[in-house]
Amino acid sequence: MQKVFEALASTVRRKILAYLSESELTAGQIAERFDISKPAVSQHLSVLENAELVKSEKRGQYVHYRIVRENLANTLNGYVQEVCPVSRPLKRESKALKEADNTTSDSLE
């Protein structure tokens, strides 16, 4: 979770994710949209990839990037579940149900 939030801390990286939200883009196409050096864009893409928010695929001489929606959504949902006061009692209930289930299945064996 820490890597995701560190990746999202950058405005440039959030913009890259927005660009990738509708289509795959090559590294060059992404770099064209920013007024920073290509190595800087590459570094931002590396951070996003390390956080598993984007995936890259080399096709010929180009590297194509796409967003990994599941990872972003799951991380943000997990965070909200941790800090949302409404979810705490539900999580406790879920944990109790799981423990009761485990106790029942253990006694059946």
TrEMBL record:
SUPFAM superfamilies: Winged helix' DNA-binding domain
Annotated ranges, domain HTH arsR-type: 1-87
Pfam families the UniProt entry points to: HTH_5
PROSITE patterns the record matches: HTH_ARSR_2
Presence of keyword Mitochondrion: no
Keywords associated with the record: DNA-binding, Transcription, Transcription regulation
Top-level taxonomic group: Bacteria
CDD domains: HTH_ARSR
GO MF annotations in UniProt: DNA binding; DNA-binding transcription factor activity
InterPro entries noted in UniProt: ArsR-like_HTH (IPR011991), HTH_ArsR_DNA-bd_dom (IPR001845), HTH_MetalResp_TranReg (IPR051081), WH-like_DNA-bd_sf (IPR036388), WH_DNA-bd_sf (IPR036390)
Protein name per its UniProtKB record: Winged helix-turn-helix transcriptional regulator
Organism of provenance: Erythrobacter insulae
